[in-house]
Amino acid sequence: MFSLNHYQPTRVVFGNNALNEIVKIIQTYGNNVFIVCSNSFPARKESNLLFSLLEKSGIHYEVFNEVTTNPTEDVIRKGATALKKMQSSVIISVGGGSVHDAAKAMKLQYSHSSDGLIDYTVTGKYSVPGISNNMIPHITVPTISGTGAEVSPASLVRIENQKHIIYSPFLYPIACIVDTDLFTCQDEETISRVGVDAFYQGLECFLANNSNPFSDMFALSTVVSCLKYLPALVKDTNDDSLKQLVELASINSIKGVSNAGVGAIHALSDPLSGQFNVHHGVAETIVAKSVINHYIEKKVEKINLLEKHLYQSFITTNKDFPLMFVQQFDWFLSKLVINTTDDIKAIRTKGYNMDSLVAESNNPDMGTAPIHLSNLDIASIFKQSL
After folding, report:
1. DSSP 3-state helix, strand, coil percentages of the chain (rounded to 5)?
2. 95, 106, 152, 339: which is deepest, by most CB within 10 A?
3. What torsion, rounded to 10 degrees, do the Cα atoms 92, 96, 97, 102 define?
4. Confidence at residue 3, expressed as pLDDT on a 0 to 100 scale
5. Running DSSP on this structure, what letter comes out for residue 130?
6. 212 near 259, Cβ under 8 Å?
7. Which residue in 245, 264, 248 sits closest to 256, CA to CA?
8. CA–CA separation, 99 and 21 (whole Å)
9. In what order do the strands lie in the sheet with 60-67?
10. Cα–Cα distances in angstroms (integers) from residue 171 to residues 83, 101, 174, 323, 337, in the given order
11. Helix axes 240-260, 213-235, angle to 10 degrees
């Protein structure tokens, strides 16, 4: 027996020409829109699809395009100031996970007190109970798949070179518009390192210490879909059907994580992203194999269940598909383009404090790991990974 309290209110509009629905949703709340995106988005061809739609509908918009990977508190504060000045009725985030996370943090900063974001993190002074339901409506428009941030109630931000989690059910976007006309990225490495996050989320929520049959459905679906469709998309970056299937995996990964949590791969990746600004998917990949090997050494039972499920799912169509999970993981990564070498070299060159890495790994993500990892375990994993 298990208990369940599932809440996921984000409306998902999914399919060809889905962007056309955004006007109706916006006009429910007003006609002033604050758009959050990366520096490159306004200059890209697909931005005209959104901008022209808003202009034809008489919707006024302003663009804040200063979000980068691992958004910082300074950027959040600047965006919140611009949001307040405009008095927007709706906020739209267009891009990948960092953009959506930044927009959530901006609407929190805008609607709450002038206190620092640190007070609203899950370990902060106000934490989850301190976040109230008075934020402006938020619509997400993903342009690449993997993090699931477009349907998530969490925001990951860098505060003083440390990655922090802000969580509240009030951070859920009201709607997510998935239109593959906006998924124009053709860079194999970008698609790989963003997309692989969905795999790690599916993997970790399946192994999590409070996983359950409900979360397992989404976790297994996510892992299988990532192994099947992400390498295919990397190989053919123009295939709209594959883009949709990877996006579905991304959404499903959050449905699993929101009911079970993640684990040590995410926990150990956080200080690498916070201290060294390593891309989230790359940071996860740096530590993932050592974490997996540690779980196998400690006989985490569900890894055996997962490897059997994957083997049965793939062996009929992939005669070279491995039997053991470590080899299955290697098989998967070999079909992606994720460069960990440069970031590891940069971390070694800059130098790292092991005590600091270990301390920051003992964060809320670690709370749902399938087994307890001691500080010595964490340090050993970092030594193997770096």
Report:
1. 55, 10, 30
2. 106
3. -40
4. 79
5. G
6. yes
7. 248
8. 21
9. 11-14, 175-178, 138-142, 90-95, 32-38, 60-67
10. 16, 10, 9, 41, 32
11. 150
Mean per-residue pLDDT for 89-107? 97
* pLDDT above 70 (res 114): no
**Burial (CB count <10 Å: 0-12, 13-18, 19+), residue 146:** buried
How many residues does this entry show for the chain? Answer: 386
Q: Could you tell me which of 147, 365, 132 has the C-alpha nearest to residue 262? A: 365
Could you write out the DSSP letters of every residue in 27-65?
Answer: HTT-SEEEEEEETTGGGSTTHHHHHHHHHHTT-EEEEEE
Reference 105, options 52, 15, 170, 175; nearest CA is 170
Show the domains of the chain with their CATH numbers: 11-182 (3.40.50.1970), 188-385 (1.20.1090.10)
Q: Are 153 and 124 in contact (CB under 8 A)?
A: no
In the chain, the amino acid numbered 354 is M
Average pLDDT, the chain: 95
pLDDT of 45 > 90? The answer is: no
DSSP character for 366?
Answer: G
Separation of alpha carbons 301 and 129, rounded Å: 35
Rounded to an integer, the average pLDDT of 205-221 is: 97
> How much is the pLDDT for 240?
95
SS3 66: strand
Mean per-residue pLDDT, 337-343:
98
For residue 55 the two structure tokens come to: 């202009």
Cα separations (Å) of 301 from 33, 124, 140? 49, 34, 37
